[in-house]
Amino acid sequence: MLLWIAFSLMTGAAILAVLWPLRTGAGAAPEAASAAEADLAVYRDQLAEIERDRTAGLIGEGEGEAARAEVARRILRASAEVHATRAASAGNVGRRRAAALIALVGVPVLAGTLYILLGSPQLSPQPLAARLNARPEEADVAVLIRKVEEHLEANPDDGRGYEVIAPIYLRIGRTSDAVRTWSNAIRLLGSSPSRQSGLGEAMVADADGVVTAEASAAFQQALAQDPKDPKARYFLGLAAEQDGKTAEAAAYWSALAADSPVGAPWLPLVHAALARVGAAAPAPQTAQVPGPGAADVAAAEDMTPEQRSQMIRGMVERLSARLAEDGDDLEGWLRLMRAWTVLGDADKAKAAATDARGHFGKDDAALARIDALARELGLGS
Amino acid sequence: MNPEIGHYALVLALAVAILQTTIPVWGARAGDAALMRVGTALAIVLFGFISLSFATLVSAYVQSDFSVLNVVENSHSMKPLLFKITGVWGNHEGSMLLWVLVLSLFGALVALFGSNLPATLKANVLGVQGSIATAFLLFILLTSNPFIRVVPAPAEGQDLNPVLQDIGLAIHPPLLYLGYVGFSITFAFAVAALIDGRIDAAWARWVRPWALAAWAFLTVGIAMGSYWAYYELGWGGWWFWDPVENASLMPWFAGTALIHSAVVMEKRDALKVWTILLAILAFSLSLLGTFLVRSGVLTSVHAFATDPSRGVFILGILIFFIGGSLAIYALRAPTLRQGGIFAPVSREGALVLNNLLLTAAAAAVFVGTLYPLALEAYNGAKITVGPPYFNLTVGALMAPVVFAMPFGPLLAWKRGDLLGAAQRLMAAFGAAILAALAAVYVQGGGPVLAPVGMGLAVFIVIGACVDLAERAGFGRVPAATALARFRGLPRATFGAALAHAGVGICLMGIIAETSWNAERIIGAKIGQSFEVGRYELTLDRLEPRQGPNYRALVGVFSVRRGGADMGTIESSKRLFTARSMSTTESGIRTYGLSQLYVSLGDELPGGAIGVRAYWKPLVTLIWLGALIMALGGVLSLSDRRLRVGAPRPAKKPKPAAVPAE
């Protein structure tokens, strides 16, 4: 609102710049002389200068006389012109009104139209200092990443930090950073199925969807530790498909599909992959560029709204189950409250808030944040 | 400050500029004083809005507001404050905004101080200024908008090109723009006179100070750019005949011709039509420079913009203004009244010679710069027109200019006495010959032309002194009288002499540096000593250092001459992490007027590091000379100022400036 007031004031100033000089009565003071009169003034100055130079001895008598004669000729000519021309008219009312109208209408219309086409009035300024000092729940993803990065720069041996940021890197498309951070996490925390398959996935994304030999090795590592790891099996199937071994690929995927619980989020992806290699029918074009990003999007597009919300519900239920086992994760509780609210389940959100308060009964800071979020979400207290 | 305020101010500025283009000119055609007055208010308001817009962008940079795309692309939160600010114009969008800011500043100055101009002339001038502002504001808003926002905002910027993270960026582009855009005023005056069909006497009076100011800024701007390239690029060169450098040199030649022909016009009412053409050319060449740098048709260190849509847009602006002004010129110039007559040997004649040679030099640079581009566009052949071409053509054209330079001021107006002038320059001849002989003795073999050039340079400097002495009458009148007269000489006379001496001093530096420099390129290990010129350098140590947004490797050299300790030199290479780019920071130590220059190269196997060391005799004179030239221009300008309301007001009809000698 304040912004629009500022815009109107600025527009007003621009219009005033036209209207003010046009106001009646302003015409009386001749601001500038007519052309011939101005010429005369210049020539008189020149005469004075010649005179001064002559008295100072800078030019000789004869030179001075010649110069005077020349300037005098110019003066005669200019005087004749002064009589011939009359000074500019004070202006007529019709023209003034037309000019005023052009300014009154033209300025707001032109500036307004262009600004609406080009500007972003809905965006507020975002100085970096303010963003860095914002409370964690208000901070944007970029700033959070930056904070983790700064933390990792100061504590380069914090394996947990790498593990947290690696999937975020992958999601925002910084694939080489994702590969680097997964590798660091494995180096510092040791190998685990999820880390190995995370590393493999990042490598695939970094290679634009090609399952490279290194990526395959990572997935094999994951399988060695957990033969059921779904991500590793999916991507190893993809590797086989890219090598032209469709039978092997189909074997990986059918086994994966058979093992998966109903409603597992990766199932649609696996089914699509199976359809691609299983049937003799020509594969859809998008299948030619397999990649987690493209495949995920395709899978999500294929889902009905019910399936989609079911998938999200599944994720939220898992979070809830995890918190029930280990309730020390404040951020997790806050996320859960938010998630249930977004899904429209206010009762569960309230229950989550109550459970969270139970867990953090002695931690005032945590309680304050829980209460603040509850108020924000309209859960009462 | 909200970036959107700046964005809206810019859009509003466009609307104001369109009004400024139309209403005053309409008023001038209709003879309506009220409408003409509107131009004055609009020009001031235009400056206000563009300043607001620029200030908003600066504030976005200072606060690292990464929701503005331009800030993301060219800034970094860890950058020192100075480079955050200079980063505003260290990129295409911001530098164009600076360009229109300077343009509107000059427009506002005409509006504020132009009350003694004839009303129609002032209205037309402001109208032409408005049209230039309109074109460039459209260009900025449609193709190079610095206020584009990003959602979501990144948490860190991509940093400014490290080569530009230097104090040079704070100085060089603003000065260069003050010069380039300063010529827009003389251009506006020229086109206004053509539109009106008459050249007022006030015309020359206004054009000369503006041309002088623009010229002085351009001179310093070019010199600073040259010094910046000298210490930042690490090759020890100070002029590369790079197309972007040429782009600034062409308007300089045209502008130099303009300030001289404007004198003739002011004093003698002659060369009017020619002066108008030069005014058009000077600004056209400035626009061409902008086009070459901004369109990306060139690939050089300066061309940080490569976007064809921008190129086509600027080309359109170029065609409109240059083509349009030349068309009006062709139509109207024959109807303008020609002024006074003069003999070939006269002050006017000398200035005409100067003009012809300077424009020829501008043309030579123009051909050398654009011919390769035209050829490439025509049949795809890539050729390079190198320094030999430019040195030969520009050198051949400038030699007679500098030789004739001391003669010009000694010739009388209208008809002069060449023999008399030559006699009065005998002292300067003598000094020149002595200087040449001394140069032969010192160099003991070496380029034959070097002593000749040194003699010429001394001739110019002494010639400028002779001019002053002659005017004061030393030797002809009693010394006390001469001294009094000397003090009474107009500042413009001192300014001209100073500027001419500056040319000579610059020439000395150029000749000394190119003829007598010493170069040494070696791979040095720590503790190793080597000689360059008469100096002995020792690489004492190599040490890593951490800057705010870079890591540096610093080589510390100790300098000895004939066993005596001459201090140390630090030369470094900086690696900027955000862009993974490195820069060289040459180590330079000045001894008198000469410099020792050391830059670090790559690390070599076996612990050695590449070192380039140069001994550059009298090299600082190149830039000092340019500064002295500009100082002469400023002195000449101050003359005009101070004589407004000067002594003996009773004799004057109104306090107004007096054309200077």
TrEMBL record, chain A:
This is C-type cytochrome biogenesis protein CcmI. The lineage of its organism: Bacteria, Pseudomonadati, Pseudomonadota, Alphaproteobacteria, Hyphomicrobiales. Its main location: other. It is found in: Cell envelope. The chain crosses the membrane at residues 98-118. Residues 133-257 form the Cytochrome c-type biogenesis protein H TPR domain. The gene is ccmI. One of its GO terms (cellular component) is cell envelope. Keywords: Cytochrome c-type biogenesis, Membrane, Repeat, TPR repeat, Transmembrane, Transmembrane helix. GO terms for biological process: cytochrome complex assembly. It holds the Pfam family TPR_CcmH_CycH. It comes from the Bacteria.
From TrEMBL, chain B:
Residues 89-295 form the Cytochrome c assembly protein domain. Required for the biogenesis of c-type cytochromes. Possible subunit of a heme lyase. Belongs to the CcmF/CycK/Ccl1/NrfE/CcsA family. One of its GO terms (biological process) is cytochrome complex assembly. It is a multi-pass membrane protein. Residues 315-640 form the Cytochrome c-type biogenesis protein CcmF C-terminal domain. The chain crosses the membrane at residues 6-26, 38-62, 96-113, 125-142, 175-195, 207-229, 249-266, 273-292, 312-331, 352-374, 394-413, 425-442, 448-469, 489-511, 618-638. Pfam families: CcmF_C (PF16327), Cytochrom_C_asm (PF01578). GO terms for molecular function: heme binding; heme transmembrane transporter activity; lyase activity. It is found in: Cell inner membrane. It comes from Ancylobacter mangrovi. It comes from the Bacteria. GO terms for cellular component: plasma membrane. This is Heme lyase CcmF/NrfE family subunit. InterPro entries: CcmF_C, Cyt_c_assembly, Cyt_c_biogenesis, Cyt_c_biogenesis_CcmF. Keywords: Cell inner membrane, Cell membrane, Cytochrome c-type biogenesis, Lyase, Membrane, Transmembrane, Transmembrane helix. Its main location: membrane.
